């Protein structure tokens, strides 16, 4: 026979799912923002706005060319670093961190 007089230590199922839903909502929103920034930098600066950006130079190379070859990679790395820092904060907020 089991003792049912003690409350369960687990949170109610609907509370956990609401917490997880909020977490994933914030996570997906962050991903959309970062992917949009990456798209604008890589496709926009490297292709669409190349003619305008080519009037400026970095290290002797036209800025549009530089973004197409180097800049988008640097921005991508910075976005990864930002994402890892921000997702840790979000995980702590929803008590889902390791």
Helix content: over 70%
Largest sheet data:
2 strands, antiparallel
Unreliable spans are: none
Listing every helix as H and every strand as E from the N terminus to the C terminus, the arrangement reads HHEEH
Distance between the termini: 35 Å
Strand order of the largest sheet: 1-2
Please state the oligomeric state of the protein chains shown.
single chain
Beta-strand share of residues? under 5%
Overall pLDDT confidence:
85
Global shape: elongated
Number of helices: 3
How many domains, as an integer? 1
Number of strands: 2
What would you say this structure looks like, in words?
This protein has 98 residues and is mainly alpha-helical. The protein has one domain. It has 3 helices and 2 strands. The chain has helices at 13-48, 50-53, 63-93, and strands at 57-58, 61-62. Strands 1-2 form a two-stranded antiparallel sheet. The longest helix is centred in the N-terminal third of the chain and has 36 residues, at 13-48. It is elongated, with a radius of gyration of 22 Å. The mean pLDDT is 85.
């Amino acid at each position: 026979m089991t003792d049912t007089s003690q409350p369960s230590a687990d949170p109610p199922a609907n509370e956990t799912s609401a917490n997880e839903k909020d977490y994933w909502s914030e996570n997906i929103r962050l991903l959309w923002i970062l992917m949009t920034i990456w798209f604008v930098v890589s496709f926009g600066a490297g292709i669409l706005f190349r003619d305008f950006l080519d009037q400026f130079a970095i290290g002797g190379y036209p800025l549009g060319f530089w973004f197409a070859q180097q800049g988008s990679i640097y921005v991508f790395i910075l976005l990864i670093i930002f994402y890892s820092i921000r997702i840790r904060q979000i995980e702590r907020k929803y008590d889902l961190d390791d």
